[in-house]
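Ticket #4471: structure output looks truncated?

Reporter: J.K.
Steps to reproduce: submitted the chain below (314 residues) through the standard prediction queue, then opened the result file.
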Amino acid sequence: MKQINNMRKGFYFVLIVMCIGIAKVNAQQEPMFTQYSFNSLTINPAIAGTLPVLNVNSLTRLQWIGMDGAPKTFSLTSHSPIIGRKIGIGATLVTDKVGPVNNTFFTLNYAYRLRVTDELTLSMGIKGGISSYSVGLTDLSVINNEDPQFQNNDKKISPNLGFGFYLYGDKFHVGFSAPKLIQTTVDDVYATDENQLKRHYFIFGGYNWQINSDWVLKPGLLTKLVSGSPVSNDITIQTTYIDRFGGGLMYRIGDALGLFVNGIVYEELSVGYGYEYSLNGLSGVNGGTHEIMLMYNFKALTSDKKKKRKIFRF
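Returned output as attached by the reporter:
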């Protein structure tokens, strides 16, 4: 009987893993965002302190509206330079819910900035934190509600380490990172390579093309690499007007097409909205993906308050 119960639990676990796989297209286990350029600290700790302000950003993503168990992701990031020193600090909190699966990631970030030339700065960052993975087995619809295998939820907490590099200037930027170096499994009993939470690598970059004194055009690329999965590429092109308003398009090759707008609405408060339309087999069964962003820059921490800030650099 115990063997049968284990087999039954294993069957449901396979369904949960499939749910994770569907939610993270191309087996990407890291949350994805249309407006990734505004919360890049979640994937690269070297971003910490690269703005001359205390930057606080929240981003809510509701994916595949209308589908039961569709992914819901929330990120909260904050980072700032240390005045008078070449270091930056930051913190990130990301929650990701897919059906009965809940993931929570919390990290602290540290970065050191090195002036390479008069125009370029290299930031080198590390991060450390914890990752929590939980599966609501008690919320599943099972044949036998008295089955002891589904009377308790599964939960696992593991440590995490990551690193990143970020080279930036007024004209362009490029970065490389591995935000989760420690690979873990979501279940020790049914641990296989397929359900392992794998190490991801991110490469991103962009260029600022000054059209005139008011308009800037900013093409960009985000590449995600993970073992056993196809390479994922997000191509973006956005424009900003007088460093206060912006918008653009995002194309995730073979997967989704998105658009986003953003702007400063009151002093240092900025808001943004993003929408994605699926280009894969799920395009006909969901109402698209919506994102809401709120960002606030505390300029009181700026070492030079008269310096013109470029919050839409990324």
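Triage note (M.O.): checked the attachment and the full token line is present. The chain is about 5% helix and 50% strand.
Status: closed, working as intended.
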